[in-house]
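Readers outside the structure-tokenisation community will struggle with the description of the input data as it stands. I therefore recommend that a typical entry be quoted early in the introduction. An entry of this sort, consisting of the sequence and the corresponding backbone structure tokens, reads as follows:
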Amino acid sequence: MLAGMLSTASTVIPRGWDAAQILVFKDSLLLTRFRLAQLSADDYARQLTQALSEQDIELARSLLNLADEQGVSLAPEFHQQVAAQETWRATTVRNSADIWQGMSTGRADSGLGLAAATISDFTLFGDVRDVILQSLAWPDHDPVLLALAGTGLGLTVMTVASGGTAAPVKVGLSLVKVARKSGRLSKSLGRQLTRITKNAIDPKAVSEVGARFSKLELKTLNRVQLDELASASKRLVSSTASKQLLKSGRGVRRIAKNSSSKGALDALHHADSVQELSRLAKLSDSLKGSFRASLRLLPDLGKSIYKLTSTLIALLLWLGGGLLWLGTAAWYSLRVLVWLLMGLWRLF
């Protein structure tokens, strides 16, 4: 039995220690690594095949890199197919199609398509257009889009007036808006944002922004006019709702910076709440280029450990196994100590 214990120590003790850290400190990164370690080469192969069929080469490359990091061996054919798709000609043809799709339909299926779909959001016209369209649809408007456009309008004015310092958060809000328009925003997160923004719009401020914008002439635009437009924009959405949207925008921007714009859209598609989005943003700091692959393999990556029943059971079993090993080791150690003391007693 002692030999069996010694042979399992290198597995049971580290796993038990990891389980204790995950359960006590709620370490999301350690939890992710624990779950990734349970996946097989077949899990990677399935997702790689799907990514290649979708022509999502960025995701395929992320999966290959993550497999290398995890020490998972994959068929050479996958590496060859991804390398072939990354050639100059294949990339040029694919990117040209993505840009056209982004400009003509607003869908964002690639980084360049996303850039084409959101470029108008970095001008005054993009957000004002959405404010006007949604205000015309009142009361059948989309409160999320209207609140995003209103908050984004204020940031756009700040970006122009400040020389770009507000641009990073604006990028995040634009990505949320694209996800909402293209149906990539998860239903649960969409419902939460709807609850946050439903009663947060000021109809009078909507009319005022539209009136002010109609009088603007970009050729003669000055700082005073920008400040007046920014002031009106701030009244569009309540401060409470605006803070929530800005928090989400910062998280989305953080994910996009650490992985890619498509990684940010993936997060918006899988996160069921603002809290899960924040958790994913924090994870992206460590996962970087492996973020998209990790999220594809573990779609519930942003969830708390206490919502992952099977993983929670596995962790409790490893923790129990570790405690049992330590208890048994302590018992054996005590027996050895007693035996030694009795031997010494007989000698003296």
